[in-house]
Task: structure prediction
Amino acid sequence: MDISAWFLESKKMTVYAQRRKRLLSLARGKQVVTMTAANTFWLTDFWGGGAAIVLPDKTVVVTSPLEADRAEEEGEEVEVVVVKGWKDIPHAIMKRLRGHRAVTDDDSLLRRFAGFRADPSLFHEGRRVKDAIEVERIRRASRGLDKIFETMPHELREGKSEREVAAEIMKSATRLGLTPSGSDSALSPVIVASGANGALPHSELTGRRLKRGDVVVVDIFFRFEGYNSDATRTFAIGTASAEMKRNYSAVREAQAKALEVATTGAVCSRINEAAVSVLRESGLDRLLNHSVGHGVGIDIHELPSISKGSKTRLVDNDVVTDEPGVYFPGKYGIRIEDTLVVGPRSELLTRFTKDLITCG
Result:
């Protein structure tokens, strides 16, 4: 089939059929079985316990009576197979596969059966480039983050604790139809890091109360209909010193430089270096202790990684973050982060101002 015929065929397919086709192509003729909720959700729009077998024309969701009705209601292009309990799921999969070899995202329940190979990277690669539905959901999540940031000048007040600010963020998110995402890097559902806590990029929430002269890093990440957006802004309480303002300007310039470079075809290491080089001019590059960005989707951290040494090139509809920061141990931190969808002219999805706002 030539490329034009393939394109026309793909245009006629639903997004769920396209996702199945992508996974099966990456599996090179092997069957594909998902054992994690995130990958089953990507294939079907159903998030719940169980497993899924990927076929060209549908996804077979194997689940218990606890989840069966919801799988039927929420699943797209699914056949639901109900087993008595979770322990029966592997046997139902084996029966359906009829001895064919399969690739899976998690083989912890399947190791005693022959023919399974765990390869999470196949699923990470399959989910990397976002389709129109995914981009729109991330765009909606991003609008919600912008609205939450609009409340911060009111919420960030002297005497308020980090946990109290976080509680208001969670309340706003719920009203906006957003759901918490969680992260492998922190227990807290959001980051509100004041004073010296801001020097920890993944600071946990504490009872520390905001004080005049503090810099506060607010990093929020929520899902809309299953898809994350991720953004960070840094605020000052009462006043900011000349040093803080100077360092903030350097981080903002670094973030803007990386945004310029982050377009279709750009090598990820070059985007990372674009931000680092600006910080280097101010003698701050050693204070950036993480990569400049990462992919975003169902998980808060996905492919690609915008990091030193990465030879990956961005492609249309990659959704990534741009988040340089500097961290002064025992003093404060500064980070500015946006989520964007990649194209020849990439689209910024989070748009709240990056001016340094001083709060009461």
